[in-house]
Every structure is written in structure tokens, then in C-alpha cells.
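[Backbone geometry]
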Amino acid sequence: MVKIAVDMMGGDDAPQIVLEAVEKAINDFEDLEILLFGDEAKYTLNHPRITFRHTSEMITMEDEPVRAIKRKKDSSMVRMAEAVKNDEAEGCVSAGNTGALMSAGLFVVGRLPGVARPALVATIPSVSGKGTVLLDLGANADAKAEHLYQNAILGHVYAKKLRGIENPKVALLNIGTEAQKGNNLTKAAYKQMAETDQFNFVGNIEAKSILEDEADVIVTDGFTGNMILKNLEGVAKSFGKVIKQNILSSAKNKLAALVLKKDMKAIAKQMDYSEYGGSVLLGLDGVVVKAHGSSNAKAFYSAIRQAKIACETQIVDNMREMVGDADE
């Protein structure tokens, strides 16, 4: 049995989408228990494998992250993180304030020994449909070469254990594929990665190839990674609008759309971020999953499923072991 703690109050459309996702997850997975934190007045579920705990405070998207974690001790997010810290739950999921969740991860759950800076990782859609692991997505705007090297180790373990890729190809995001390309950060990181036997480093990769399945894991700093992720989300949304406008532009196009409806749905599903769940904050002494703030019930359900798999595959123990080996 896997127990996941859930922040019922975090996210743009909470608690409705959270309750819907929790209900579906608890019905789909017979080996799942949910420890749910939030406002008792808004709790509507009743299931023997859901334990509800009332919280009197809520961290909003406008709250300053560190101050909120320190002052709002009875918030759903802090209580959720404490459940992981106290071994009441193996992992936790929230769609709330990203900065606050990262602070809760650092100050409540705690880092793994040997991890300099935790990193946000997510699986993004790719051409083949299998997806590509990208990190860091914003946990650290500034980074040193050793941080990128450690991100590569964390990404390797994530891809191997959570995604089932036996020998993940790890690449460094850069402005060119040649070894000498880039700034001081990427040049130094490339040198460290090229000399290691901790993971399968395949060299530099350009941004234009991110979705082309040339690597299983792509490593960058949090500033760049966050912009890449938001750009991909924006392009996907805009592309959908363009397609819709063109389909509705004529009777001929509408007829063609009816013929291709099934295929178009398959393509949309392949490129849908909600199929992959949220971002995992790697390098912590527990599983912490950040669902999109604008998550619908489907996306939050996927985040719960992702947290469950991370717990089942003992990803934290595997990272503890591998980071420890790298430090020796």
C-alpha cells in the first residue's frame, strides 16, 4: 500500500479539481491511500482509504514563499510536507505556489545528503510519444557546473527508475552540439559530464531537437529550463488555436476534420502535458510532486499517479545511493 499526502487547497481551481482527481485515483488504484489536507467545509468525499485532516490556513499564489512556509504552519501545504517528513506518507502532491512548495521541500522534507540543490524535473511530450525528461525547470535560476552535473545524475535515476529506460541517454542543452560551444557554465559542465561513468552522456543538444527523441534526459539551468517549458506550453496552445481557426474556416475543412477526428485526438493526446503529470522536485528526502497551477482534474490525477510510481520504484533511495557514490 502506498500513502500519498495531498494539498486540497493549492491551485487555480482547487479544491474542486483536486477532489475529483483524488476520487478517481482512489477508485483506480486499490493499493493507494490518500492523506488529504484542507478546509473541512469544502471536503465532500467519503472513502475508507482517504484520511482527511482539517487545516485552518492556505498558502496563496501571491504569498512570499519562505515567509508563507514559516508563518502558515497550519496550511494544507505545510501539513502535507510534514506528513512526508514524519513518515506518515511516502510522497506528496500540490498544485499550489511553486516557490512555497520548493521551500516546503527544502525546509520541511529536507534534502538528501550530498545534494547541493534540488531540481524540478518533468517529462515533456516528444515526437515518438515516449516523452523526454527535462531539468531543471525553475528550482534554481542560477547554477554552477557541479549543479548541472548533479542534475544529470538525478535525471538519470528518474528516467531509469520512474520511466523504465535501462540506459538513459543524457544530453546537455547548449547553443550547438560541438564540445567547445557555449558559455563558461556549459563548457565546464560538459567537461565534467564527458569524464564520468555515472551516466550515459551523449553530448550537447540544441533547443530545436528537444522534442526529437535524441536524448532521454536533457539537463539545463533552472532559468533556461523554465523558459523552455513555458515556451513549449505556449506554442502547443497557440498551435491548437491556429488549427481550430483553419478547421472552422470552410465547409471543406470541416468535412476533412470529421474524417481525421480520431487521428487528431490521438495527436492531441500525445502532445498533452496533462498525460505526464506534474514536476517532481528531485534531491529531497521524500517524493514531492508539483502539479501545474492551472491543472484540471486529469492533470492532477496524473500527478498523483506519478507520485505513486515514484514511491513504488523507491526513487528517493536510488538517488540517495547514487548521489552518495558520486560524492565518494
Q: What stands out?
A: The first helix runs from residue 16 to 28. The chain has two domains: 1-115+283-317, 120-274.
